[in-house]
Amino acid sequence: MTTAPLSLEHIIRPSSLTDKKPPVLFMLHGYGSNEEDLFSFAPELPEELCIIAMRAPHILQPYGYAWYAINFDAEKGKWSDDDQAIESREKIISFIDEACSTYGLDDQNVNLLGFSQGTILSYSVALSYPEKIKNIIALSGYINEKILKDSYAESNFENLNFYCSHGDMDQVIPVEWARKAPNFLKMLGIKHVYEEFPAGHGVLPQNFYSFKKWLSNKI
């Protein structure tokens, strides 16, 4: 069902649980996509999860949405609007609170699944607010330190778990950028798994089944 009473447009698959507050998985799509994209995974994911796919706030023409602008010019080349990214980070964390309250979800079992730009935001949300997030599936993205909270390194990360994966032939986000994540997470003492697949900028079936198994063991 589609709903719009909260601060971000979204679609939701309710949990099968009726006897307690269910765990929730928030999905963050990539640049130029929409909330329907990752939601296609929902039928194959654990039934006890409430799944909420969010729509990014910035409209792209002629269609699609983005969490922040990616600009191209002669002098700077390709660059990201980090201010917009930080604004989206705050919108996401506010929406998580709203959704958990509105839908009666377990705010101690909040999980994120991102792809590409959605992964960059998932890293930012989890590392900036580790007390609010439990598990993160980070597909085909990287860590942008410029959009983390200034004091993030002082946080307690003991409850965080990351599953990170990337295609070794990715033409959109170089795999070298993704390969920096394991050392970054290790330095912070964060539990993580990193995998590469023979793929471009996408999710192969074996990648899906790998993170599905990982998530099923974590929730």
Task: Describe this entry's structure for a reader.
The protein is an alpha/beta fold and 219 residues long. The chain has 6 helices and 12 strands. An 8-stranded mixed β-sheet has the order 1-2-4-3-9-10-11-12, sandwiched between helices. A hairpin with a 5-residue loop joins strand 5 and strand 6 (65-66). Helix 2 (82-103) crosses helix 3 (117-128). The radius of gyration is 16 Å and the shape is globular. It starts with a strand and ends with a helix. The relative contact order is 0.14. The model has no long low-confidence stretch (mean pLDDT 94).
Secondary-structure blueprint:
Layout: E1 2-3, E2 10-13, E3 24-28, H1 36-39, E4 50-54, E5 58-59, E6 65-66, E7 70-73, E8 77-80, H2 82-103, E9 110-115, H3 117-128, E10 135-139, E11 161-167, H4 175-178, H5 181-187, E12 191-197, H6 205-218
Parallel strand pairs: 3-4, 3-9, 9-10, 10-11, 11-12
Antiparallel strand pairs: 1-2, 2-4, 5-6, 7-8
Strand residue content: 15-25%
Topology, number of strands: 12
User: Which structural class is indicated by helix and strand composition?
Assistant: alpha/beta
Side-by-side strand order of the widest sheet: 1-2-4-3-9-10-11-12
Radius of gyration in whole Å, from Cα? 16 Å
Helical region count? Answer: 6
Question: Which residues sit in consecutive blocks of at least 5 with pLDDT less than 50?
Answer: none
Largest sheet: 8 strands, mixed
Report how far apart the termini are: 24 Å
Approximate shape:
globular
Residues in helix, %? 25-40%
Mean pLDDT, rounded to whole units?
94
What is the H-and-E element order? EEEHEEEEEHEHEEHHEH
